[in-house]
Structures
1.
Amino acid sequence: MLPYQTLDEASDALGRNLTYAETLWFQYSARKSDYFLYCHTILLLFFVFSVVPLPLVFLELARLGGFERFKIQPKARLSSAQVFRCYKDVMRMFFFVVGPLQIVSYPSIRMIGIRTGFPLPSGWEIFAQLSVYFVVEDYSNYWIHRFLHNKWGYEKIHRVHHEYTAPIGFAAPYAHWAEVLILGIPSFLGPAMVPGHLITFWLWIALRQIEAIETHSGYDFPWSPTKYIPFYGGAEYHDYHHYVGGQSQNNFASVFTYCDYIYGTDKGYRYQKKLFQKVNHYYKLKGELKAGGQQNGGSHHISTQDLKSD
């Protein structure tokens, strides 16, 4: 709860007039406890899990011709009943694991110093902190993910997430309850190392989940703005990981691909990518690329299918 009764008190404390954003924040949060504000994280996650995947699910079910060439595994289709079952399972995990975890984690949020007061962070401060959060989460998630692909970790925990060999957006948080708890650690490390404002924390939670939904979407759109992010994995990259599945040591990246490259866990993917480029070049020379693309859903999809034939 903000320690000010009026906007004038807040302005006097800051020694300046409040910005428009700070005024809105004061009007909304001044009479609300920090715990109540933190519980908004539950509503945020519910919104992201439920709403963000909907356009991708619509494409999956509607099978619109103009978008079919962007589907990574064109032969793998889920029915509306299967999509609903996935969402239902995710919501069950949300209400029994994710939601309660957010409630009981409030003391740790207080301990590391996530604040709710003034001043609000600047755009550059938010950007810098989010950059740290993504890098820290990506590196720590990489090693936990690799551990979950050993015999015990996969059979006891991680195999649940890999039930979808051709993932959809709703399947991003679909996992064993233990995996949900374990992978919460990398997401918390960045804010613990560089604590910021609650608004920055909310942005981090939302962006990380949106990224996971995008990489599990099953579609690789050439116009996606994430393609301009250096070392970003993306949907096709992570889709390969789901396709080969099992205890395969390929493409563990959470967000970026540099760990896979450094530690050699993307060699199979890169090999198959180069192999297909040669195949594509051959068809182009033969004048058969167009016919091949029509049979396989487009040139992008030929590459994906060949990538997964390893």
2.
Amino acid sequence: MSTRILHCSSAIENYNICIEQKVAGFQNRGPQPGDLVYLAAKVGKKTLCGARFKLDKLTDLKPWPDGEKYVHSLKVKEVEYCQPFDISILSQTGGKFWSLKYIQASKPISDKPACDLLDQEFSLKKTDHFIPFNIDSDGDNDTANFVVEDEITELAVKKPLTRDSIKVQALLAEIGDRMGYKIWLPKNDRSRVLEVWQTKVNSVLQDLPLNYDSDTLNTIENIDVLWIKGRSIVRAFEVEHTTSIYSGILRMADLMALQPNLNIKAHIVAPIERKEKVMNELSRPVFKHVLAPSCSFISYDSIEGLSKEKMLEYMTDAVLEAFSESVKDSAI
């Protein structure tokens, strides 16, 4: 097993997608299953690491906007998170040219003191949740609204359940449960959502009752909330708040491309001020024909309002049509 650093450069969106979709891409075929990888990105003038994982099996999944440049793609497992730290600490062992020695081409780090230093710093700052780096509403990394040191500290000490996205996931789960559907939550989010949503033990599925190939299941199990009836997905929701709008839409598009015959109604749930961004993304040529007809926007406010409806137990998922807006309906 080798230790490596996967440096996303200033592609903050790629950094977030690696964690969200549990996949790592490389421009060479050196990294192998079992390797320990520290994930890093350039944030302002610093190179920060906020996660590490072990490489798993090879995959054809390349969910990044520039995915064609990654010739070697592997799923990841045993993902761990930390309060982002500056990996220039490696200058303590690698000297002035530490970045060339340890980062270039995700080469194996053969220097044990460097590996020990990374492990020590990561373990010291370890957290139980992912701290994404923010991209501005235009998705332009050159003018990205990066998380700076003070913000990192603030995010690290906050309990993740205070995040609006977790609260909205909990509301979506509660609404679906009250309507009589089984609920699927990604394993990484489940404990945080269940801290907000106090529910019956059997409401949340522990395993997906679906018979699909492994690539389809890997995509489905990372969708933020699913309403399931029997062996069918009734509704799929991606909740977007601090991460890129693109990543959630891409996950939905992957699902539709992998299983074009599935009749799934999908929704991007986001603050109302991000509606225009969602509509613009759904209107992209790459999504317009595959995803736009079956995917719509719902605002946080609409979900909060629906959750207060006293007659939910007597309603079906069709009520969402009154709250959702598709590209064809939008004036954007």
